C-alpha cells in the first residue's frame, strides 16, 4: 500500500491505517478513539512522509446495526475540518457508503472552493447512501446539497 500512496495527492485513511499500514510512528493506541490533537499529529506525519495534499476519514459511532452516528474529517494545510454529525436511524444498506464519501469528495472539489463545503458535501453523500439499497448512490447533486444544508439531522427529501 505505501507504494501506491507515494503517487497520491489525496488519501482516504484513518489513524489505524496510518500507523498500522502506512508506517507512521505514534505512541497513541489507534485501536480506540483518539483526540483531535493526536489525529492531527498522525495525519501531518502522513502528509509529510508521502507529500500528500489532503487526508480524509469517516467516523462511525455504532449504537446498533440500525442506528449509527456519523461525521467525517478532512486534514490539509495543518488544519482539521470536521463535518456536522448525522444521527442515522433505520439504515437500509451500508454497502457503498465509503465509495459515496470518496465520490462526494471528488465532486465537492469540483463544486466548491473551500474545504468545509467540500467535506460537508461528501459527508452528506456518505450519509444519504445509508438510505439507498445496493452499491450505488442514486441521488442527485441537489438532493445531497439539500441534506448538506439541513440543520436537523438526516432530513432526506426526495
Question: Can you walk me through this structure?
Answer:
Keywords: Kinase, Transferase. InterPro entries: Carb_kinase_PfkB-like (IPR052700), PfkB_dom (IPR011611), Ribokinase-like (IPR029056). GO terms for molecular function: kinase activity. Residues 3-129 form the Carbohydrate kinase PfkB domain. The protein has 158 residues and is of the alpha+beta class. It has a domain at 80-158. The protein has helices at 2-5, 15-21, 36-50, 97-111, 115-128, 141-149, and strands at residues 10-12, 54-64, 67-76, 79-82, 86-89. Strands 1, 2, 3, 4 and 5 form a five-stranded mixed sheet that branches. β2 and β3 form a beta hairpin. The radius of gyration is 16 Å and the shape is globular.
Summarize, please.
Residues 3-129 form the Carbohydrate kinase PfkB domain. The chain is α+β, with helices and mostly antiparallel strands and 158 residues long.
Helix percentage range: 40-55%
Order of helices and strands: HEHHEEEEHHH
Please state the CA-atom Rg, rounded to the nearest Å. 16 Å
Give the strand tally. 5
Shape, per Cα inertia axes: globular
Distance between the termini: 39 Å
Give the number of helices.
6
Largest sheet: 5 strands, mixed
**Helices and strands: which structural class?**
alpha+beta
Q: What kind of assembly state do the chains in view correspond to?
A: single chain
Strand content: 15-25%
Poorly predicted ranges: none
GO molecular function: kinase activity
Keywords: Kinase, Transferase
Organism: Brachyspira pilosicoli B2904
Protein name: PfkB family carbohydrate kinase
Amino acid at each position: 500500500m505505501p507504494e501506491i500512496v507515494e503517487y497520491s495527492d489525496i488519501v482516504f485513511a484513518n489513524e489505524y491505517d496510518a500507523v498500522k499500514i502506512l508506517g507512521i510512528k505514534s505512541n497513541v493506541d489507534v485501536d480506540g478513539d483518539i483526540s483531535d490533537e493526536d489525529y492531527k499529529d498522525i495525519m501531518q506525519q502522513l502528509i509529510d512522509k508521502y507529500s500528500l495534499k489532503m487526508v480524509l476519514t469517516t467516523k462511525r459511532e455504532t449504537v446498533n446495526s440500525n442506528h449509527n452516528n456519523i461525521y467525517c474529517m478532512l486534514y490539509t494545510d495543518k488544519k482539521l475540518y470536521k463535518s456536522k454529525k448525522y444521527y442515522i436511524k433505520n439504515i437500509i444498506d451500508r454497502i457503498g457508503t465509503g465509495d459515496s464519501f470518496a465520490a462526494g469528495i471528488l465532486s465537492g472539489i469540483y463544486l466548491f472552493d473551500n474545504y468545509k463545503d467540500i467535506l460537508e458535501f461528501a459527508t452528506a453523500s456518505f450519509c444519504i447512501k445509508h438510505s439507498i439499497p445496493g452499491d450505488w448512490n442514486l441521488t442527485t447533486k441537489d438532493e445531497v446539497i439539500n441534506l448538506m444544508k439541513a440543520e436537523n439531522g438526516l432530513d432526506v427529501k426526495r
